[in-house]
Design brief:
The complex is a heterodimer of chains A (about 170) and B (about 260). The longest helix of chain A is centred in the last third of the chain and has 26 residues. In chain A, α6 crosses α9. In chain A, about 75% of the residues lie in helices and about 0% in strands. By secondary structure, chain A is mostly helical. Chain B has about 260 residues and is of the alpha+beta class. Chain B has 2 domains: about 45 residues, no CATH class; about 160 residues, Phosphorylase Kinase, domain 1, CATH 3.30.200. Helix content of chain B is about 45%, strand content about 20%. A 7-stranded antiparallel beta sheet of chain B has the order 1-2-3-4-7-6-5, sandwiched between helices. In chain B, about 30% of the residues are buried. About 10% of the residues of chain B have low confidence. Classes of the chains: A mainly alpha (about 170), B alpha+beta (about 260). At the A-B interface, α1, α2, α3, α6 and α7 of A face α1, α3, α4 and α5 of B.
Chain lengths: ~170, ~260
């Protein structure tokens, strides 16, 4: 459930919409049990979440409503820095960690969905290439090149974002 | 290896998705090339930051909402599979080993059922569904075994006494051969955390398992049909006994059997 919500959130970048998508996706999964051919259930379920999110995105494009990034983030993560920090870092370390995390998340949000989804599935969910291929319906080779390009793009955007706000950052 | 080629392999190198030979070559290059290893450490650092940031936390109420939806959906007839569901892998080699694969599919279905059962078990709404899954799993289990019965007899007066001393009540056993439901036999099974009686009937080539156990509550309950994974489950309560009839038989025939019992 957590993984499903996370993927939906990163694809549509809205908590409220991600919630609707997860609900719809679980209903679809439930009704399509016959279509499930065994194996690990998670990639199968995430594939349904992904397809539901993409369909939702294309509907939204057609209806012409576009949510800005600022908006998505204003309503976004309610998680505070303190929730995540572990190993009892000092206040200063925590501040730096939180700032960097903020940049990385903003940079990720700027990437095209095809890069965003493979990065989320790899870095946050820790899926293997084979599993990511199953979720995205793309060959493993494509997953590999998208991750490679996605990481490169992420690094570029990050450098730009950090350079703009704070020239000595990286 | 050239830098250009190494840059292409940095990402799969980091993810442990390279062959041993490629991994060795990339590692050798990284030893010597500062710029490539700097890029790798950037990739690694950003990846760690993402992993530490973790998932966007799901709203607390979402799980309950999804369970509620599923519980309601479980009572509705499942609609045809939507186009959004990924297609199962192509059936190339299936024809060769169809028999084996079919058996594997049934076992897989049972695994999925137990996964779903675990998932639903945590909610109170899920209790009825857990029972459905249990009953269905018991039915599938009986089909996977060599024989679905422990006492084989078409005679109700042989099957009924067999249960005495094995379970704490005397189950309803009828010989319905003349109505087209010949009695096959009986066995013990385990459903909803208790030992239950299972009486097996046949309808043409279809096996019907009728599970029964003393009910926790009094008062009769009219038959309710649930369809799961292509199986029909009919449940009712009569005379303080809970009944579950499960089969791949059509709903009409199953209802006919219910009326006869």
């Amino acid at each position: 459930m957590e993984a499903a919500f996370n993927l939906a959130f990163w694809l549509v970048r809205s908590r409220a919409d991600a919630e609707d998508i997860v609900q719809e996706a679980y209903l679809r999964a439930f009704r399509a049990f016959d279509g499930f051919r065994g194996g690990d259930m998670r990639p199968w379920l995430l594939a349904i979440v992904r397809n539901t999110a993409y369909r939702w995105l294309s509907n939204r494009r057609r209806s012409g409503t576009v949510i800005s990034l600022e908006e998505a983030f204003a309503e976004g993560s309610g998680q505070s820095a303190d929730d995540i920090a572990s190993d009892e870092p000092t206040a200063e370390e925590r501040l730096i960690g939180a700032a960097e995390r903020d940049y990385v998340l903003r940079a990720l949000a700027e990437l095209p969905p095809a890069f965003r989804e493979v990065l989320v599935l790899r870095e946050i969910e820790g899926l293997a290439y084979r599993e990511i291929a199953e979720v995205t319906g793309a060959p493993v080779g494509t997953v590999m090149s998208r991750l490679s390009r996605g990481r490169g793009e992420l690094r570029k955007v990050l450098t730009r974002l950090m350079g703009k706000d704070e020239p000595n950052a990286m | 290896m050239q830098c250009e080629r190494v840059r292409e392999l940095l990402s799969p190198y980091l993810d442990g998705e390279l062959s041993a030979e490629e991994r060795r070559q990339v590692a050798a290059h990284l030893e010597e090339c500062h710029s490539c290893s700097a890029q790798l450490s950037d990739f690694r650092r950003v990846g760690q930051t993402l992993a530490e940031a973790g998932r966007e936390p799901a709203p607390k109420a979402l799980t309950a909402r999804v369970r509620g939806n599923l519980a309601r959906a479980a009572h509705a007839e499942p609609p045809p599979t939507a186009a959004l569901i990924p297609k199962p892998p192509s059936a190339g080699a299936v024809a060769l080993r169809r028999g084996l694969l079919r058996q594997a599919a049934v076992i897989a279905a049972a695994c999925v059922l137990s996964a779903l059962a675990t998932w639903l078990a945590t909610s109170s709404l899920g209790q009825q569904h857990r029972l459905e899954q249990d009953v269905l799993a018991a039915h599938v289990r009986s089909l996977l075994q060599d024989s679905p019965i422990q006492v084989a007899s078409s005679d109700a007066h042989t099957v009924k006494p067999w249960f005495a001393g094995r379970i704490d009540f005397s189950p309803e056993v009828k010989d319905l051969a003349s109505e087209g439901f010949p009695l096959v036999g009986g066995r013990l099974d385990y459903v909803g955390g208790r030992r239950v009686g299972a009486v097996v009937y046949k309808r043409r080539l279809h096996i019907v398992n009728v599970f029964m156990w003393p009910s926790a509550s009094l008062g009769d309950v009219a038959p309710l049909l649930v369809t799961r994974n292509g199986y029909n489950l009919l449940t009712w309560r009569r005379g303080g006994v809970d009944y579950w009839a499960v089969s791949d038989l059509n709903a009409g025939d199953l209802a006919q059997l219910q009326a006869l019992l």
